[in-house]
Amino acid sequence: MGLENVKHVVLVLSGKGGVGKSSVTLQLALSLSQQGHNVGILDIDLTGPSIPRLLNLEDKKVRQAPGGWLPVPVHSAIDPGQASAPSGSPSNGASQSSARGSLHALSLAFLLPSRDSAVIWRGPKKTAMIRQFVSDVLWPPNTEYLLIDTPPGTSDEHIAIVEELHKLATAMPTIQNGQPHLNISTPAPSLAGAVVVTTPQAISTSDVRKELNFCVKTQVSVLGVIENMSGYMCPCCGEISNIFSKGGGEIMAQECGVPYLGSVPIDTTFGELVEGVKQAQRTAVDSENSIPVAATELVERYKDCGLCKIFNEYTSKLVSQIGS
């Protein structure tokens, strides 16, 4: 079993494409990591993987190890005693003594020869690849949360991942010395549930309702609905303007009887962070000897983003809900 080091699995779903599932997945992962949790991201959007691009790691490749694949490291964990901010980097009011969890990612894009390579596969091959992702990826020990970024809709990928996770959640007996034996030494990861992403427009919520129905039929609990692209956050003053409709996701969650986590505005500074526009500008310089040091990692630069506080609140709700 490839998920023996994973404690909780969270699906990120949406019935509509282009609503920002991948960016929500990444920001949930960054916020969980900032709160001290070890996190993994599994990108099963096989025909349109976005996570490597968002992480600016498109040139990385998956390494083979005895027993399976090793996910690509994004950043390492930092113990409380080592969590002082790099010289010259802003702390944004955060405590510099808090722990930081690690982040690793795996995507089919890490296995392709180039970012422009097309994946033209039929359903059975997609299902086989997802099963391999579940069984053959060696996530680091003590990975507390595995976020699975899914494609839009309710297709082969969704059915395959839910079936595999339900199988793992059911302890299956093995045969030892000709007798059935229940192996409980390695606990199976729990499918904590799904975070469902929508935009406020009715055309989006109508498709996302189908995703909620999918969760009911496949026995996946809905941890919460996030209404993405709800308003526009001014990069200068932080004021949020509702340039499109607002509240459609909240109304849908109320009508369907599922939790509503909240809304996320459009913030252009997040796009600049993931595209690396500001990375060169944030190269820290040691004040004593003026030796340039490495630019701060995405998890640290994300603290300057206006969405950081919003997602920290949402991840705190999820952690509390999953733990309860």
TrEMBL record:
GO terms for biological process: iron-sulfur cluster assembly. The keyword Cell membrane does not apply. It comes from the Eukaryota. Gene3D superfamilies: P-loop containing nucleotide triphosphate hydrolases (3.40.50.300). [4Fe-4S] cluster binds at residues 234, 237. Residues 73-98 are annotated as: Disordered. It is found in: Cytoplasm. GO terms for molecular function: 4 iron, 4 sulfur cluster binding; ATP binding; ATP-dependent FeS chaperone activity; metal ion binding. Signal peptide: none annotated. Pfam families: ParA. ATP binds at residues 15-22. Keywords: 4Fe-4S, ATP-binding, Cytoplasm, Iron, Iron-sulfur, Metal-binding, Nucleotide-binding. The keyword Nucleotide-binding applies. Belongs to the Mrp/NBP35 ATP-binding proteins family. NUBP2/CFD1 subfamily. This is Cytosolic Fe-S cluster assembly factor cfd1.
